[in-house]
């Protein structure tokens, strides 16, 4: 037991001696200085490998964001008529089944659409019942002649007082909601 105390005393003594000799006014030796001293680049300065400077560069022409495909139909009445002929691309080349796409579309519809269009697509959502907005159509309205393509087109660009949902949902999600809208239309 006494040996342990002697060893501990020696250890504390050596540690105190080593720390007492250190000069607190000068820094210690750096073993890997490249980890402590970063290479600084001034914002917007010209550097050898970026001739236009370090500011944000414009993307290369004809590039698109990952996971996004351009729609290709204009936001005009003629474009909406052109969209009427579209069919959903999810059925042909998607790894999810029709039921899984419908389930995802149902969830997204509940989040983004049901507040105005209602859970059944009858145009009697919460905001319509509270008379916060008026004129929300039912999906079975014959004058509207809704197709899966026009539903997608409307979500992409918006229509009347309904804004675009292209910033909230990606292309696949909008097609899933469009398919679900067609299911609701058939049930009405």
UniProtKB/TrEMBL annotation:
<dbReference type="InterPro" id="IPR009056">
    <property type="entry name" value="Cyt_c-like_dom"/>
</dbReference>
<dbReference type="InterPro" id="IPR036909">
    <property type="entry name" value="Cyt_c-like_dom_sf"/>
</dbReference>
<keyword id="KW-0479">Metal-binding</keyword>
<keyword id="KW-0349">Heme</keyword>
<keyword id="KW-0408">Iron</keyword>
<feature type="domain" description="Cytochrome c">
    <location>
        <begin position="100"/>
        <end position="185"/>
    </location>
</feature>
<dbReference type="GO" id="GO:0009055">
    <property type="term" value="F:electron transfer activity"/>
</dbReference>
<dbReference type="GO" id="GO:0020037">
    <property type="term" value="F:heme binding"/>
</dbReference>
<protein>
    <recommendedName>
        <fullName>Cytochrome c domain-containing protein</fullName>
    </recommendedName>
</protein>
<dbReference type="GO" id="GO:0046872">
    <property type="term" value="F:metal ion binding"/>
</dbReference>
<dbReference type="Pfam" id="PF13442">
    <property type="entry name" value="Cytochrome_CBB3"/>
</dbReference>
């Amino acid at each position: 037991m006494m040996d342990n105390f002697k060893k501990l005393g020696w250890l504390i003594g050596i540690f105190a001696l080593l720390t007492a000799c250190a000069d607190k006014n000068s820094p210690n030796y750096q073993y890997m200085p490249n980890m402590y001293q970063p290479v600084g680049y001034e914002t917007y300065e010209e550097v050898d490998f970026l001739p236009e400077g370090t500011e944000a560069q414009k993307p290369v022409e004809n590039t698109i964001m990952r996971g996004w495909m351009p729609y290709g139909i204009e936001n005009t009445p003629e474009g909406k008529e052109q969209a009427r002929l579209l069919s959903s691309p999810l059925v042909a080349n998607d790894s999810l089944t029709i039921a899984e796409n419908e389930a995802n579309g149902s969830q997204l519809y509940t989040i983004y659409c049901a507040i105005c269009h209602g859970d059944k697509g009858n145009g009697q959502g919460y905001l319509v019942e509270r008379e916060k907005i008026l004129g929300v159509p039912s999906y079975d309205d014959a004058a509207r002649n809704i197709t899966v393509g026009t539903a997608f087109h409307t979500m992409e660009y918006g229509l009347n007082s309904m804004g675009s949902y292209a910033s909230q949902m990606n292309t696949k999600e909008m097609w899933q909601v469009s398919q679900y809208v067609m299911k609701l239309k058939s049930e009405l």
